[in-house]
Amino acid sequence: MFKFNKVFNTHASQAEVFSDIQPLIRSVLDGFNVCIFAYGQTGSGKTYTMSGPGTSKEDWGVNYRALNDLFDISLSRRNAFSYEVGVQMVEIYNEQVRDLLSNDIAQKTLGIWSTSQPNGLVVPDASLHPVKSTLDVLQLMEIGQTNRAVGSTALNERSSRSHSILTVHVRGVDLKNGSTSRGCLHLIDLAGSERVERSEAIGDRLKEAQYINKSLSALGDVIFSLAQKNAHVPYRNSKLTQVLQSSLGGQAKTLMFVQINPDTGSYSETISTLKFAERVSGVELGAARSNKEGKDIKELLEQVSSLKDTISRKDMEIDQLLKNKAKSPGSSIDRNDSRQQIRRLSGTGSSEAECEDNMSDDGCSVAGTEYSVGGASEATAERMQKAPSRIARLFHTKNGQPANSKPKPRESALKPPG
């Protein structure tokens, strides 16, 4: 016997399914990361659950309803909070990550960043589209579904041949105190697992099936490692598990739909799917944490940004001085020695690399021009207690004196014998 949190029969409506997960989705507006994905054999209804047939509003799947709900709530909170919503949509096809909302679907494959980043930018090079209404989402989703790889097999006339990932980024600002929150919602429609002999796949369909089954097998290995609480979890064995890393092993709220086919010919696949789902339900992810930045944290990050700008300007001045010196006749310079001399003269003290190390040690993750501090409120409080010392290091000072100056000798409290 298998036990699950909820079982929907064949007559359950899309609205009924969504109502059960609605509280989970709404927590995104409060700064939580949420992941919802559908798993099951090909033709079992995963795409129907996540996207729906799209024929009418009543047929909307989880993706459309989630976005519509987020807009409704943000509108009701408009007097207290300001929200910005952006959407990304990618697919993992034959272990290649592609942007489904790009004008050039045949573009180069995209890379995956560390999924531990609080801003949720797992695939940063994928186009991020700001959306203001449900209509904007419908138009983008239509483009994404059109670009998604599908193919016909003996089991499904229109079988998804890739894993589809719709990511919704929500940034909220408290209009009263200026604090910000970042929530991320991953809505994932996995390609269906299939037995090659039953699907009668050949050629490209066979190659696709092999990649699909391999990535789903890697997902199973990750789930098994998490359930066993192993020290090493093989996230890097597939692109799919790399994308899901923050959701499966991080501090996100995660839900899985298990889709099964009632056809008697699918009995073995159904049992396999149910066993996998039972294993997933035994994984403990720990308490979810919200990604919030208080006003004091925001001010500290602004100081970090200002200091990096200062370092950048100093570097430009140094490079220009080096170029001018190189043009002088008969000059022979050592770039590193000259750079250090100029830094001492300009009063910048430590090198840029040392400053970078200081910022890294303080827990500030830098990506381009965007800075983010993650972690729970306790970690935030601890960091703020250390803020004076951090700022001192960033300004290259020690005990109120420049880092490159020597401290005055301390007078002894004991007088020498007369």
TrEMBL record:
Name of one Pfam family that matches: Kinesin
Entry's Gene Ontology BP terms: microtubule-based movement
Keywords for this protein: ATP-binding, Coiled coil, Microtubule, Motor protein, Nucleotide-binding
Cellular component GO terms, alphabetical: microtubule
Compositionally biased intervals (Basic and acidic residues): 408-418
InterPro entries linked to this entry: Kinesin-like_fam, Kinesin_motor_dom, Kinesin_motor_dom_sf, P-loop_NTPase
GO-annotated molecular function: ATP binding; microtubule binding; microtubule motor activity
Residues binding ATP, per UniProt: G40, Q41, T42, G43, S44, G45, K46, T47
Region span, Disordered: 325-418
Alphabetized PANTHER family for the sequence: KINESIN-LIKE PROTEIN KIN-14C, KINESIN-LIKE PROTEIN KLP-3
Family (UniProt): Belongs to the TRAFAC class myosin-kinesin ATPase superfamily. Kinesin family. KIN-14 subfamily.
Name by which UniProt lists this protein: Kinesin-related protein16
Provenance organism: Zea mays
Lineage: Eukaryota, Viridiplantae, Streptophyta, Embryophyta, Tracheophyta
